[in-house]
Amino acid sequence: MDELTQIRSYSTQQIDQKSQELKELSFQIWSHPETCYNETHAHEVLTSFLEKEGFVVERNFIHQTGFRATFGTSNGVNVCVICEYDALPEIGHACGHNLIAECGVAAGIAIKAALEKAPNKHGKVTILGTPAEEGGGGKLKMIEAGVFDDIHVALMAHPCPHNIPRPPLLAKQEVQITFTGKPAHAAAFPWQGVNALDAAVMCYQAISVMRQQFKPTWRVHGIFTNGGVKPSIIPDKAELQYYLRAPTVLELEELKSKFEGCVQGSALLAGCQVSYKYDTGYLDLVTNQHLASLYEKHATAQGLVFTTDKSVEQNESASGDIGNVSQVIPTIQPGYSIYTSESNHTRGFREAAGSDRAHLATLTQAKILALTALDLIFDDNDKTLQAIQEEFKATFGSR
């Protein structure tokens, strides 16, 4: 066994040796769910853990609940492993972000161990704590602040029902719609009012009818967030919140055009005024194929079997601000099975995310990400990194 093989083996052994501590870390986050930008407990336990492990930790980094933990030198490859740790309202860690945090920390520990074992090897690992993925766009502000400017690649793994090395994450925009009418007594003088709720209901129905003209890969889903204050008052304000998703930003613009026609037409029919506001949006994930191939090599060696059913990949498509990162630096975010048939964003998936099987699957993912990173760090002629960067430049141009 050559020296680098020994170092790789040593690095992954560190994950096994810290299995119980990592499990407790994940449970601490899973059992204390916190929504976007409120992740104070998760921030505390993660940063304290990483400080204990010898990383240089910057707390309250960019965001109050963001952090950056680093180890190594700046004159080599800087690999970033990303942690997420926010939960969903009411249903907690039903997207398994406690596991994403555990995976990022475990992979970082393994990479650090390898760098320590090979002290003459230049390289750096950055563990980035990114809050507010579930609608808050925490990574977007980090991009704007230049956090990724000195990072060469970004790695993250996301739990789901199946092993999917190159998941198709969709571009997404949230939109808030407000219809404004005129109040009146609903029994005595209803003709004096202009019913904003009627406009919102027609809008919802129009969008549902329009689905016949939506492409199969488009996703549109919404809720009523305000339907009036009392049945005896004609509602003068009604509000909807929608998520729009499509495979690319260009397709998303096409979808928005159809969507806006439904919004404006409903306001016209009800005689209301309407305003709508989009957020900055999540971009589609552009998986770096060279980087994904490295991941697949190590995943296969670890015994993972990937789904070959394209319909499964399509059905499990979602969105995330990791897509924005992927259009700034080469990135992968494989999906990995935690041995449940329950889909993400359900109470069943939340329970699975707190299980022993999910913990063990996450440790395997951490090993795979660490070994993928070490392929870059231990590549003396940088040919692997060069191929990754050339692919990125061919896709996006020089940035």
Question: Keywords for this structure?
Answer:
single chain, 399 residues, alpha/beta, six-stranded mixed beta sheet, four-stranded antiparallel beta sheet, 43% helix, elongated
In the sheet with the most strands, the strands line up as 1-2-4-3-5-11
What characteristic shape results from the CA principal axes?
elongated
Q: If helices are DSSP runs of H or I spanning 4 or more residues, what is the number of helices? A: 13
SS content category: alpha/beta
Mean pLDDT: 95
What is the H/E string? HHHEEEHEHEEEHEEHEHHHEEHHH
Strand content: 15-25%
User: Alpha-carbon distance between the termini?
Assistant: 41 Å
Using DSSP, what is the number of strands? 12
Radius of gyration: 23 Å
Largest sheet: 6 strands, mixed
* Helical content class: 40-55%
Low-confidence stretches: none
What's the quick description here?
This protein is of the alpha/beta class and 399 residues long. It has helices at 3-17, 19-30, 40-52, 97-117, 138-144, 196-210, 249-270, 289-301, 310-315, 322-326, 347-353, 356-377, 383-396, and strands spanning 56-59, 67-72, 78-83, 124-129, 153-155, 158-160, 171-180, 219-226, 237-246, 273-278, 331-332, 335-337.
Please give a structural write-up.
The protein has 399 residues and is of the alpha/beta class. It has 13 helices and twelve strands. It has helices at residues 3-17, 19-30, 40-52, 97-117, 138-144, 196-210, 249-270, 289-301, 310-315, 322-326, 347-353, 356-377, 383-396, and strands spanning 56-59, 67-72, 78-83, 124-129, 153-155, 158-160, 171-180, 219-226, 237-246, 273-278, 331-332, 335-337. Strands 1-2-4-3-5-11 form a six-stranded mixed β-sheet. Strands 8-9-7-10 form a four-stranded antiparallel β-sheet, with helices on one face. Strands 6-12 form a two-stranded parallel ribbon. It is elongated and about 85 Å long.
